[in-house]
Amino acid sequence: MNFQQLRSVRETVRQGFNLTEVAATLHTSQPGVSRQIRELEDELGIEIFVRAGKRLTGLTPPGEVVLPIVERLLHEAANLKRAGDDYARSGSGALTIAATHSQARYALPAAVRDFRAGHPQVQLQLHQGTPQQIARMLIDGEADIGIATEALADYQELLALPCYRWTHSVVLPPDHALARDAQAGKPLTLQRLAEFPLITYESGYTGRAHIDEAFKRAGLAPEVVLVAMDADVIKTYVELGMGVGIVAAIAYDEERDRHLRAIDARHLFAANMTRLAIKRGSYLRDYVYDFITTFAAPLTRSLVEQAMVATPEQDPML
Q1: Model-level pTM?
Q2: Is residue 253, in this structure, part of any structural domain at all?
Q3: What DSSP letter does each residue of 38-74 carry, written as one string?
């Protein structure tokens, strides 16, 4: 049994049983992948995959049992490598962070700057994606830290730690009727907001669920004319006069967004919680803990370590 055999099994499942894709990912040949799988099956005395001729089409019942063990072995091998690196290359290495656009654009820059100042030999890699993509990157070992508001707490494989709460703002041109209402001291209501076409986030992003829930509870069905993942895109179309924007409050900057005005909407939509996630059982290098604390000061190393050893049911942070 060797790690190449285990990687061939894991990657075959990840690539939807397409051995051509597996071979490309592992930088080997398709016959080589088939041989590695067959040799492992012969050694274990079971068939891991269902076959239709020469094609693999799924996992056998024994394969369903074997796959999580393969995943754990490869995960622990990666932990072992990281532990060795901590001593061989103290203070240097790579840190991969996966985040949604809003977090990468508005929440992370100050933390990245401060971390970089204290850890100049650590190479930072930043990937953007949907909350679901971020979760998958963490589970697959492609990212060390994930930051998002939605989805991360839904995966048993991840430890999702609460970082900070945030609210929404309504953004609009300075001469908009709602801006005049605000100047006159009239409070913004859902009923008044629903009178105008809206531009906001796609479903599953940046607190969109709380926006929809608020209108539904009020018995309102506003006209949403455009959705986007990116607050900057939303603001661009608000400036063009296409509608009123609903964005994360952190996405509005009075200096940068001089052609827009913002109205606090925390009284209209429920607050949201941004979470930082890591894969359960991961070995975290010293500088990973440092970044976590830099981004969210309450998440000290001792607190994270305590949460890591707790089961999901015992986790005091959730």
Answers
A1: 0.71
A2: yes
A3: HHHHHHHTS--EEEETTEEEEE-HHHHHHHHHHHHHH
